[in-house]
Design brief:
Layout: H1 2-5, H2 16-28, H3 41-48, H4 52-64, E1 68-71, E2 75-78, H5 89-105, H6 110-126, E3 132-136, H7 139-150, E4 157-161, H8 162-167, E5 177-181, H9 185-191, E6 199-202, E7 204-206, H10 208-215, E8 223-227, H11 230-243, E9 248-252, H12 256-264, E10 268-272, H13 276-282, E11 287-291, E12 293-295, H14 297-323
Parallel strand pairs: 3-4, 3-5, 5-6, 8-9, 8-10, 10-11
Antiparallel strand pairs: 1-2, 7-12
Helix pairs in contact: 2-4, 3-4
Amino acid sequence: MEGVAETKTPRQFVTVDDVVQIIADRIQEQSLARGSKMPSIRQLAKDMDVSNNMVYRAYRLLEEAGVLSTRAGKGVYVAEGNATGRLTIEQTEAQLRQYFRLSKLSGASKEHLTSRVLALIDDVFGAAEHRVAFVDCNVHDATSIRDELMSVVPVNVQPLVLDEVAREPSILKTYDLVFTTYYHIREVEDIWSEHAGRLIPLHHCPSRDSFIEVARIPQGTRICLTASNERTLNIVRGLGMTFHQSNVTECVSCDQEALKQSLAGAEVVIADSKAVPAVRQISRRAKLITIRFRVEDESLEVFKLAVNGLEKCSEEVAASEESS
């Protein structure tokens, strides 16, 4: 596999997160095509000079995220759909086929199933198309969070960049609901103050696994904290300093000189994913812990309730119009 094999790194300097990131980056860059077969665990481990177990764990993490899929007796493949966790058409058809078989065994008639399916199709295609947006400070985060939200509720979410919204606030008026993170709620409220009731903040935070990895770093370890911007660095700092108060340096990854100085004596680097390329360009000696962010479960539930509220409101309006 060209996209992965070219990145060969000494075993002791690579983590499972590194392997995950390399594979995910190659898929994003389309070096690995959707539907293509991945190398065997043994082959990829040899190409990257890491253990078989490390590649196995990376494959499992990517499979859980919907990026890879295992086909019985055939191997591991890059998922045909996108990496948001949404079902592909093929997966949906397989689930429908299983449902129809079970319904047939339970005595349901073809006519009954047909009428139910047609009713559902009419319900979906007859419903109003709600306009929902997510605002963040950069297109990468806005898009990745949008994908995470759409994997939970099948509604179209438009990613918007904060600077563009600030230049043209009228954009937001066309949306039924607008979501943003806690970190940008004040900025978006200032732009859209007259419609604050339709603005809902969500918590985008370091994942549980990120906390565990940082907590496991031995006390006294020399640590470098870095991130792609000051705001994210504040979050990385808060995570790092929760468990380690000494032997810690920090800087933004775009400051090359400061990053070189911080990495010079570091044994462990804690960084957000966008800072990883800058770190690896300068040094591969330190162990790298990549902080991964996700929308917390409570915020995902808030998102679901808000979107479902739109659906319920539309249904009530439609029922009212029919009765009148």
